[in-house]
Amino acid sequence: MARSSSRSTTLAFAAVTTLFFAWGFITSLIDPLVASVKGIFTLTNLQAQAAAFAFFIAYGLVSFPAAALLSRAKSIPTILIALGLMIAGCLVMLAAANLAVFTLVLLGLFILASGITILQVAANPLAAALGNPKYSHLRLTLSQTFNSFGTFLGPLLGAHLFLAGIEVKDGTAVTDAARSDALAGIDSAYLWICGLIAALALFFWLSRRVVTEAAPPVASTAGLFSALNSRWALFGGLAIFLYVGAEVAIGTQMALLLNDNSVWGHSDAAFGVPVLGYLMGSDGVPGVSLQEAGKAVALYWLGAMVGRAIGSALLAMVRAHLLLALFTAIASAMCFYVFAVGGVTAGFVALSIGLFNSIMFPVIFTLTLERSTGTVESTSGLLCTAIVGGALLPLLVGAVSDGNGYAFALIVPAACYLALCVFAFLAGRAPILRREATTSVH
């Protein structure tokens, strides 16, 4: 009986971990999707960034309602509601691809992201709770690793399906055949995602008793807005806003930046780098096409995955606020390099920014929880709401790139990282109110 229970708990944890992978994969598909819709619908950079806006605005609108839903409905019903929303979002994306309507793309992304937001609120504590409490941190770290793996694979598949034959440079036009192929790729991707989510929903429904028994108690909604009265919770919310906004803006602009003639558009240098060249897969035409550039974006997210492993080791030796100050300063300097120097080397520098993004979210999260006078649940909810920066700052970066070019637009994330460096030093001087804070990864 004990062995059967252990096996059931392991299967439940595997399913929860699959959720982490799924939302990482779906989120990173936004990067090639922004480049694709720019070409398919002949949009400006600002208009194309509306795709990122539609996705990440859900965090600002749904995080607190998701916490209230979890408190009332408990874990399994909340997860099933989240998966149902994600399926609905995929179905709208299928309609958008078949009807070639950009506003439907935006609606589908918003519904999909609303489901993901609710899912994150429910799945993080579940991943930690499904098994021996002694290994809860190990399980959550393992689940987060699969999340990072999903963000690495998303741009590769998305670029393959969404960007074949798509051109966005001045003086170029997208052929009807390329437009049809890209829309068919979007249709295929979200059809398969829809099937995966439906299978997961069925599994959770069938195993609801096992998962419910292992689920942690859900906090009440009392004091849900107490963080709004905490100066440090508000500071931390602003920091998360700036960090996520910078990370998403760079990711969604990366393929367009690398494809630009002033960076890699007329250069084959990237194909000489073993791993990078293999991932991009040269089409034999001189220079880097948009599809090849889109595949290279996977290394931006792989850098974040590798950086988390390195950063975890460094955090055992270096105080968290000092490591955050160092990483944000380096990221800011790299953005300034792309802005001020440009050229072929700027492409390699831009891709490497992901390595230094790696520890920012969990460190900002814990630094804030330790110093906030609000409840842990309220502070956590506020910080998750602040992920809405991923909706707003990419719009600003898109507007700047329309007028001044992709490399110039990195001045915006450079300023964001500089502000985060200031936050890190201020955190080092602020009193710590609690030590039991735990990390979370978006």
From TrEMBL:
Any one GO CC term of the record: plasma membrane
Cell compartment(s), UniProt: Cell inner membrane
Protein name stated in the entry: MFS transporter
GO molecular function: transmembrane transporter activity
Source organism: Sphingomonas psychrotolerans
UniProt keyword annotations, A-Z: Cell membrane, Membrane, Transmembrane, Transmembrane helix
Membrane topology classification: Multi-pass membrane protein
Domain of life: Bacteria
